[in-house]
User: What shape does this take?
Amino acid sequence: MTREAPRQDIDESELAVSTPKEWAAGIPGVLVSLGRGMEQMGAGRTVKTLRLLNQRKGFDCPGCAWPEGQGHRSVAEFCENGAKAVAEEATRRRVDETFFAEHSVAELSERTDYWLGSQGRLTHPMVLRPGATHYEPISWAESFELIAAELGELDSPDQAVFYTSGRTSNEAAFLYQLFVRSFGTNNLPDCSNMCHESSGSALNQTLGIGKGTVSLDDVHHADLLLVVGQNPGTNHPRMLSALEKAKGNGAKIVAVNPLPEAGLLRFKNPQKVRGVLGRGTDLTDEFCQIRLGGDLALFQALGHLLLAAEEEAPGTVLDGDFIREHSHGFAEYAAHVHALDWAQVEEATGLARSQIETVARMLIASKRTIVCWAMGITQHRHSVATIREMVNVLLLRGMIGRPGAGVCPVRGHSNVQGDRTMGIWEKPPEAFLDALEREFELPMPREHGFDTVAALQAMRGRTADDRGLVFFALGGNFVSASPDTEVTEAALRSCALTVQVSTKLNRSHVVHGRTALILPTLGRTERDVQHTGEQFVTVEDSMSAVHASRGRLEPASETLHSEVSIVARLARAVLGAEHPIPWEDFERDYDAIRDRIARVVPGCEDYNTRVRAPDGFVLPNPPRDSRSFPTATGRANFTANRLEVLRVPEGRLLLQTLRSHDQYNTTIYGLDDRYRGVKNARRVVFVNPADCERLGVVDGQLVDVISEWPVGTRVEERRAAGFRIVAYPTARGCAAAYYPEANPLVPLDSVAEESNTPTSKSIVVRLEPAG
Ligand SMILES: Nc1nc2c(c(=O)[nH]1)N[C@H]1C(S)=C(S)[C@@H](COP(=O)(O)OP(=O)(O)OC[C@H]3O[C@@H](n4cnc5c(=O)[nH]c(N)nc54)[C@H](O)[C@@H]3O)O[C@H]1N2
Ligand SMILES: Nc1nc2c(c(=O)[nH]1)N[C@H]1C(S)=C(S)[C@@H](COP(=O)(O)OP(=O)(O)OC[C@H]3O[C@@H](n4cnc5c(=O)[nH]c(N)nc54)[C@H](O)[C@@H]3O)O[C@H]1N2
Ligand SMILES: [Mo]
Assistant: This one.
């Protein structure tokens, strides 16, 4: 398979490479954030907007899910990349009816996500009629009728797929899942299926709740933090302040990553004089430059070393009381890791045994250990087992449900965790469906629905002549975010109808079904006024804190509806005006939705009152709150996980796809990856200099990247053409390229076991001189 990606609007030959940075943030970060604001919003709006970001009376940053502090908040509770996210939404640029009249869909489909996203905010509902060349304006009422008609044509509700991206508020998410289930399907894939699904799977099995067990305060007071498979300097910059604080309290930090990411090495806090003028804070005490996918082996080895140390000095290493009183499966786990094969560990991790021993000593010395992780852990074939293995190590030392200790999966989208709490889940727990049925006195579908990969697999191979299929997306950019771009695009093109509820133009609008709709919506930053007056919404951060978010800016256009309003109106159009659920009341006053959330969603009792508290409230978390573990065994589960070394054939590399410093997922802010020293271009592939030599390629060379995926006795190939090699200090045998440019290389069927997450961080590739 070959696919020429659209890239005429970026001149990749402008690439400039300099030495990677060894520190993050500082003055350049502040300047970039202000500059981006001024460029998109102008000076007055920049100051006003950034002042409201993450303040109690303002809006939640649409950037990442890292929590704001409880109690005191600094005046500027945001980061460079949060400011970029806000500027992107609060931009004064507009994509209006004239824009669509001037640009055909064929022309727009040749543009990159970078160009599409930078055209501005969508202002009016638009429709692309069958066979038409251009989107044309349509009224809201007609849009909903059109969707209702297409959904009515389906043989079964299961022929419709309802995607969600993680910016959707709790109120909109709750209403959306209620609508979709009332319509009759659990086909509710979401971005989480490509993101932290592995964390949810592993933590549910082992701890009984698919969420982290620490608070921000715990991070501040941990004495050892392992930051594994995560690049906080770019993706969760406010986390650096928390790490700095922990360091100030004497914590040690271990970073586990194939790349020496700047944010992990040193942090210059722009809010402190020392950060502005001085050297900043050295964050990492031990940098383990691991091979891609080696983390399972690393944590198994750490468990082995802890057990060995306990054998030497019984009663000094393990938390015997915790293991006895709260855990299950210890003996089997201990026997399994006892038989560790060090050669395998060294091959899998690329780390020296002595370094792993150093980390084990740090674990033994620690009284309060936290393990943080993100996509470097969740997007591999053995992700779920890897996370279980991290849990094993924490359980050995009783590091769950103790202040300053626990698991910390660092979420991506600002409300991805809340969306799941509200029922955006293709595999809803029975108890949740029971609660919905009780509350609304309507039957809910019980059969599990499609997640992202399953939805695409079901759509694969269809043609536009096949019957039906409606794809509806509440936010996000499904086409660019999903794996296997060519397969994904064909799948979307085979739909009878594609609908995108969006703030900005993206590739999912120009790769479309027979009929396509764009429904423009309010962003987080904007005032949301309904019949009963100004509304607020609620969100849940990565540490289960739920709080209000109030938009303050004037909407990008008078025509925009909120997501709540779009879902409520859609439900009325599809389910009929006589439907027993009072959709209209929900739209008039979001308190009415919250009253229902309070009665349906566990832990949300008295929701309307509690979300009005200045810092909101924290959802219950049994492992953290009381060391109780609602698992199948009623205890925290140790697990024995098979160690398998990812072997790469001769002449190949293991490729990870990651984010540059200048993007938010598929939204490309700019062409610089400041910390990694890359400027003006995105089609680059980072390769270790020794591998360049071994493979006979040189720094700066133009190559095609070809992925190899065995299917039976054949090897399927996928090609992404025209990448520039950047010789870079990544781990040996590993390579890196940016998402979404590298997505055509990720085979749809290459997924994490159990969580079905695309393996975006381990793809076997070879490089060929570009032809
Ligand atoms: N500015 C900005 N902020 C964001 C986002 C954004 O795009 N831009 N995206 C948001 C979203 S949705 C998410 S999910 C998060 C993503 O946050 P991250 O997970 O930090 O994002 P990635 O860029 O995918 O980085 C993965 C990191 O894991 C490392 N890694 C890759 N494979 C392995 C491995 O096998 N082992 C180990 N130990 N490390 C590995 C990579 O080198 C890299 O440092 O950020 C959120 N915040
Ligand atoms: N190869 C590879 N693929 C990946 C990943 C990877 O690391 N490598 N990461 C995966 C991860 S972690 C994730 S989370 C997914 C992300 O997948 P998505 O969440 O689907 O993608 P985004 O790029 O975040 O979506 C951006 C679009 O959301 C819309 N938008 C922004 N704000 C709002 C809003 O407030 N409301 C509405 N309705 N729309 C809004 C805009 O139109 C914008 O164009 O991608 C996954 N794909
Ligand atoms: Mo994500």
The domain at 653-769 is CATH 2.40.40.20 (Barwin-like endoglucanases). The mean pLDDT is 93.
